[in-house]
Design a protein that fits this description.
Blueprint: H1 2-94, H2 101-118, H3 125-160
Length: about 160
Amino acid sequence: MNLKLIAYLGVSAALFGAGYYVAHLSGERDLAKATSAWDTARADLETKRADAEKAQRLAEQGQAEALSKAASSYQKGKDDAKQAADKAVADLTAGNRRLRDQWATCQASSAAVSSAGAGQRADGEDRLREESVGRILRAVGQCQAQRDALQEALMGERAGQ
């Protein structure tokens, strides 16, 4: 009887060991499948992240190019405005250009005031008026150049999207 009991225990232990071994192999197979699926998903996410970074870099490069182009356009506009203002002042000084009536009226009334007090027109009055016109024209030109550059930058940014 003891021998039968020992035999049953031995067979039971062997079957338990075999079942444990089969379960262990099955678990390893499941783990391998899960690890493979995890590795595939991780690789897919890494690829998507790399693609997103590449797209972001391209968009940033496009924006940088648009802003650079807008900045050079703005600088050119500022330079053009300064040249136009300087030319207008030179034309006023040379007598090739005349001021509008509202400035001429201002000129006549200020001349009357200065001639009444001093008997003659102030020497720097014409020069001050010409410089004022130059400053006004430069400011207007710079504002227009800035507006154009900002619009160009905005269009470049929108085109990059």
